[in-house]
């Protein structure tokens, strides 16, 4: 197991290095000059050259990339001051350390991810299980219809609608706001409930359909029939045999989804005005803020890669047939 | 002046990608119902008496409460030396004072330029090259220490440092020339600016020695970077996070991109301040609030949003019809001119024949473009390179655009025939978002009536100004814009129309290089009477539009926004194009 994890971790590092290189070099393929965003009104060649120098953009791109990667591990001395490891540099837009910005934004993303995942996993898998148990009955048909609808709608559509109905008109839920666990723990939960509910819709719809389909397939497997033939109760067979068989693909999807939302839920955060990693990503792109783009990209990619490794490791526990050779 | 970066890019992607942007509005049907024509308050220079505090009271106003400000974009900077864009200028007076500033009468809206830290708007030598300012008594920083003339000199010296790249450069270039950073490297070099440039004979007097006459110095001294900085508290770039307050509020917390809280500065003395009423106890800024959600929150005004406003951003165009169509909103809207003018720049390096440029002007469909950009509430059909807010504004319309707002294709065709041009194909570059896609399509349809075939070239939003700002760009037409920094053409025509200022990134986007215009710019700059100078700029503007046609002005931007009913004293500063925070109170 340890060998497997070490091997996967090394592979993950290679992937992250490749992602960082692609992001870094692609940024310079854009014709946009980030110096213009840090430049005053009459932004002539002299001012642009000065800003390029301040931002380190006057060096060859491979040299810039090398300095960036070295800084991640040992820190860097930059014109604006020293940047401790892990040094993601300073934002082009506001000259703040990127790592500090990410740390500041992460509580929102983390809370949204955990609450959203809890909701979509519970509702999605729950609906799928009941639908599978009640195949062809009214509940199954309604659940399938609801899931299909949920999968078809978009957050940017249901988000404003939910705010208007549930927050503005009925006043049942909070509009959605940033978490502040230190000063307002209850408000942190209530403020994140509506965004988490809205975000979960597109996820649980998928889980519901997947779970139902996998369970129906499992219930028709020979080992399940054998178990039934041996006189085991339907409930026992349903959960002990069929569900366990269906768990593998569900966990795989869950791991990938969780990695994605841990890396920032761009549309949900933007819709609800949450200051998370997803919103930061949008800001970085729109401001052609390379250090921020790199920081957010590496952070999100790391979350996805870590969850992928964890999924692979979890197979051994879910399905004993899997051997980590 | 620029509008704020990020809001613009999120909303329309073109308000201020670079120095020139203006804009406002966005794609979609703008309402036209019941749009009152805003009044233009020509600014005047105040006297020493006008410069005395306290500020005129607002009827019915009371002290206390918290104002919530919803901002789509971050301020990015708080260091006064780095402030320039409109959302920065909107909040600057709350925590930072300058030598002069705008005093808005809360009853009439009349704006007067008065001494802020200074006792008046300045004493000039006969040649207008030397300007002397005296500081008022009782001026203090938030820590209670006295503000001195040396602090103002130090604040200006800082502007020469290599990291101060975003603020205005008027005073630095007037003092030390266009290559001012070579002349002096800033206070961190261990040297001071010599007394021959700025002298401080005593703690309360500061004397500026400019290289040339500058009649509009009083206006330049209200720019947000002409502010005192205490040398002992200067932390270079880190000063940006927590500048020392000289205004009625100090920075309680600032979380870049998320929030800013301003709390009372107890060392601010209202008796020294003719501008700021400072009624609320606190200002709470929520940053990075997406639109149209932001506008909808202001409309709904539920909970604390009853006490909310946004200082510098116009209402989302998708909400215009609702706001204009429902009388219940009328009492809590602001709709006034901004100093920004949108223009269609014509690349004169490629479209060389003035008759062809005139043909484009005649064919330009003003009315349709106005509708596309959000209707009358978001902007008025404009034919002058300078906004109606500019001192000495003169209305001219050499191509009859007001009387022919749908364009005059027949005249355009005749001009093209006269120029010997047939089957004219031109390339229009536009920032690729909904607003400018609609703009491009409307323009293409309009010019097609005159037989001009417009090839549309969509450009990445973030790259737009980099690409059209290149001198050898491959486009014939592109939309740009400009806003005056103060009420004088000196901040509009020299940067945008001087043929000696054609270089990558500079705002002469049309590459106009007319020797008459160049010499006129030099002549007018040297006029020492401000009113004469303003009139001369207007004449030159008309000459350029009529004879050179380097660009087609089409839209005087307007500010249109709604605010929570729990607020009063919401006045407007048309010189910056934002709500005047100084008079706002919580009901």
UniProtKB/TrEMBL annotation, chain A:
The chain crosses the membrane at residues 9-30, 110-130, 142-166, 186-205, 241-267, 296-318. It comes from the Bacteria. It is found in: Cell membrane. Residues 106-315 form the ABC transmembrane type-1 domain. Its main location: membrane. It is a multi-pass membrane protein. Belongs to the binding-protein-dependent transport system permease family. This is ABC transporter permease.
Automatic annotation (TrEMBL), chain B:
CDD domains: PBP2_clavulanate_OppA2. The keyword Signal applies. It comes from the Bacteria. SUPFAM superfamilies: Periplasmic binding protein-like II (SSF53850). Residues 1-21 form the signal peptide. The keyword RNA-binding does not apply. InterPro entries: Peptide/Ni-bd, SBP_5, SBP_5_dom. Residues 113-497 form the Solute-binding protein family domain. Gene3D superfamilies: Dipeptide-binding Protein, Domain 3, Periplasmic binding protein-like II. Residues 46-73 are annotated as: Disordered. Keywords: Signal. This is ABC transporter substrate-binding protein. It comes from Streptantibioticus ferralitis.
